Fold this protein.
Amino acid sequence: MKYFVTGAATFLGRAVTRRLIDAGHEVITVARKPERAKDELDGGVEVVYGDILWQNTLFDALKGVDGIFHMSSYHHYKTKEVRENRNVSVHFSKNIKETVKELKEARQEAKDSGISVSERNNVEATRILLETAKEMRIKRIVYTGTLAVYSDTRNRVLTEEARYTGPWNSEYEFTMWKAQHNVVMKMAKEGLPVLTLQPGMMYGPGDIGYAHQLIYNFLRRGLSDPQDRVLRTYPRKTAYCWSYVDDVADAHVMAMKRGTPGESYFLSGPISTVEGVLKMISSITHLPMPKHSLPPGVLRFEAAMMSIIGGLLPVEEGYSAEFLRSIAGTTSLAKYDKAEVILSFKPRTLYEGLRSTLYYEMNQLGLIAHDDKDGDLVVMEAEGHTT
């Protein structure tokens, strides 16, 4: 089988493409800089020139394709500011000059289209891809959404029957909701063979998102000279479903085989507060917990202040009003019963997932982990290592 994959170089995309290639399938993707993309992808992925925003390049890329995995999305805070051409934070790749150039191009394209980068990449790109897939009669499409479309579930544990119409804490949440409801679900009702998967807070080796920042900066406590990048506070009462990347990737492959078009499936994983996750990491590594936690009211007040400040001065993404609102005691909770039955989704325990992740993150930091007699990790700093 031949599959077209968007977001092939992302955290989840790598895990899915590895499984497809190992199973003997062909995988193809598009990139504006194909040679550069090949360096960032695992071997076996065919990269052709194009972009999912450029429909004219999709027709050739989708020739002979049996199915599509649409996993690319734009997840940055402060994206509304792009409309006004203010500074935006990005994750830099190996080639910083190329990344800066691509960001400028994306901002200019968004400005020309009159919408934010987030809406252009999450909503318009999805619409263009699915319209092209419909025209080319692609047999099966797996769209990767997110539980974040429900914003704050307010401690309720949702099922796929839940409906939500706002408000949202961030442009990411809102544009992903628009993509799922105004594009994917609408076209599914019109007969397009597309289904939706909605992971929770994804984590695991190779992550660069929020879970990675929590774990990585927590582990810096084990360094003799951690400098200033140490986790000193955490949000109180904030809770997620923690989805280990390999479990989510397995469900994606199974969804292509067994998923029902028009349906959505929660890939939610075990539920825990951020505090609960940090306490588990502390118990595994014996590193101390941060001394301070921030209650929801304080974070909401800070978000209100940063909303004003952010209108006057450039603000780092992690201090933006959107980000602070998103972690101010919010919860993103859901059951995975449907995915367990249909897609054989069996998420590992948080303890199992964290141990695997901790080994990886410790190696990145130059920390050595040894199992003690109780099965916990003894953390040591590698001699002569610098961060």
In short: Residues 81-94 have pLDDT under 50 and may be disordered. The two ends are 43 Å apart (CA to CA). The first helix runs from residue 11 to 22. The longest strand covers residues 26-31.
